Amino acid sequence: MSVHLLRTYVAFHRFIALAWMIGLAFFAFFIAVLYRSLAESGIEELWESYPEALRAAVGLDPEAPLAVGGRFAIESWLAMEFLGWMPLLIALYGVVYGAGTIAREAEQGTLDLILSQPVARYRFVVSKSLVFLVSTAALVVTAGVALQAGVAAAGESLNTIYLYLTLFQGALVGLAVAGYAIAFSGAFLSVGRAAAVAGL
């Protein structure tokens, strides 16, 4: 790993990562706050309107989705509306980042310049991968803090350990997809082809 390369890639990637963090934080906060307005009446109708396959995809039991008292539990709501989609969102981030890791450098003509320097090729890839790892960790922490703030604003409470474990699982899916995307980026040297294959 090259510290100079790592610093350079963090500087180049900071605005994209910040945009993803703000968007994901807004989405998480909005979903958590929305629970309060739907908790008493609207969630049951919303749940019934979903196809059974979608209900199964987010990991809720179709036979017993309601908590004691006929209300949806906040955990069920967050699993249905946010946490179930988190692996997909992080995987999408992984495809977008990973596909451009090497291929974008090749398309812009900077890959030859980088590889002509006395830097080992693995350091180039490791530096780019570490930037993705750090930005993914920042996404997970931001989403967790936004969810906690939204849950507190809705007047509910949530188990912080389970929340971050669930977010961490989503991040692992994103890291796996990003690994494939980085590999395809190096193999094809085309952002479009790498994103298409990794997105499958």
Automatic annotation (TrEMBL):
Residue ranges of the TM segments: 12-35, 82-103, 130-155, 161-183
A cellular-component GO term for this protein: plasma membrane
Keyword Transmembrane: yes
Keywords in alphabetical order: Membrane, Transmembrane, Transmembrane helix
GO MF annotation: an example: ABC-type transporter activity
Pfam families per UniProt: ABC2_membrane_2
Entry protein name: ABC-2 type transporter domain-containing protein
Lineage of the organism: unclassified sequences, metagenomes, ecological metagenomes
